[in-house]
Specification:
alpha/beta, Rossmann fold, Arc Repressor Mutant, subunit A, 2 domains, five-stranded parallel sheet, 12 strands, 39% helix
Length: 236
C-alpha cells in the first residue's frame, strides 16, 4: 500500500511518514505540488495526502489536475484553513476528505484507512455482472448525464462532474419521486465508514446545484425534503 504525501513543512512531512510507516504503509514524499504531480504520474499511489498551501502548485490545483486524469484514487486534503468555503471547494473539485489542522494522529490514520477501504470496495471484482450496472447515459429532467465521461449536458453545454456528484445524482435517480435520507446519500457517495461533518452533505449538494440547476435558488432536479434529505421528481 503506497501513499503520496505532499507537504512543504519538513517537520510535519517527517512526522506523517513516521506515523504511517508504523501503520505498515509505504510513503512517497514531495515538498511541493509540482513534485507531487510528477510522483503521482510515476508511482501510481493508492491514496494521496496533500497540504492545501504549497509552493509551485497548491493542493487544490493539484487535486484538479489529478481529477482531470484519474477519478478514483482517493485524495485527502490537509489545511490550517478551516473555513467552510475552503472545505466546500475541496469537496467540489473532487477531494474525498478534508482534514483541518491541527488534527489528531488517530483521526488522520482512521480517515486514511477509511479512504483506502472505500477505494478497494469501489473496484469491480472479477465475478461482478455488468447486468446490474446502470446505463452509460442517464437523464434527469433536461439534463443528460454521461457516467463514463463524468459530464452532464444541457442544451449543448457540458458540465464536469466529480465522482461523488455523480453518485449523489444516481442515488436520487434510482429512487425518483421518493425522499432519500442524508445517511443513504452519505453511504452512496462517501461509503458507510465515512465520518461526516454534520453539514458536509448540504454543502456538497449546494455546490452541485450551482452546477446543474438553471436556478439554484429554486431547484428542479435536487429538491430538499426538510428533516429527511433530498428528492428527485421526474416531472421537475
Amino acid at each position: 500500500m503506497k501513499i503520496l504525501i505532499a507537504e512543504d513543512d519538513p517537520n510535519l512531512r517527517a512526522g506523517l511518514v513516521d506515523l504511517l510507516t508504523l501503520e505498515g504503509i509505504d510513503c512517497i514524499v514531495a515538498e511541493d505540488g509540482e513534485s507531487a504531480w510528477q510522483a503521482f504520474t510515476e508511482a501510481a499511489p493508492d491514496l494521496c495526502l496533500f497540504d492545501v498551501m504549497m509552493p509551485r502548485l497548491d493542493g487544490l490545483d493539484l487535486c484538479r489536475r489529478i481529477r482531470a486524469r484519474d477519478s478514483h484514487t482517493p485524495i485527502l486534503l490537509l489545511s490550517a484553513r478551516g473555513a467552510e468555503i475552503d472545505r466546500v471547494i475541496g469537496l467540489e473539485i473532487g477531494a474525498d476528505d478534508y482534514i483541518a489542522k491541527p488534527f489528531s494522529a488517530r483521526e488522520l490514520v482512521a480517515r486514511i484507512k477509511a479512504g483506502l477501504r472505500r477505494a478497494k470496495a469501489a473496484q469491480p471484482g472479477p465475478a461482478e455482472s455488468a447486468v446490474s450496472e446502470p446505463p452509460a447515459r442517464l437523464r434527469m429532467g433536461d439534463l443528460e448525464i454521461d457516467r463514463e465521461a463524468l459530464r452532464a449536458f444541457r442544451s449543448g453545454q457540458s458540465i464536469d462532474l466529480a465522482p461523488r456528484e455523480l453518485a449523489i445524482l444516481q442515488a436520487l435517480l434510482a429512487r425518483k419521486g421518493k425522499a432519500v435520507s442524508r445517511d443513504d446519500l452519505f453511504d452512496a457517495a462517501w461509503g458507510r465508514d465515512y465520518m461526516p461533518n454534520s453539514r458536509a452533505l448540504d454543502q456538497y449538494v449546494s455546490g452541485l446545484r450551482r452546477k446543474i440547476e438553471i436556478d439554484p435558488a429554486h431547484p428542479r432536479i435536487i429538491k430538499t425534503v426538510h428533516g429527511v434529505g433530498y428528492r428527485y421528481d421526474e416531472d421537475g
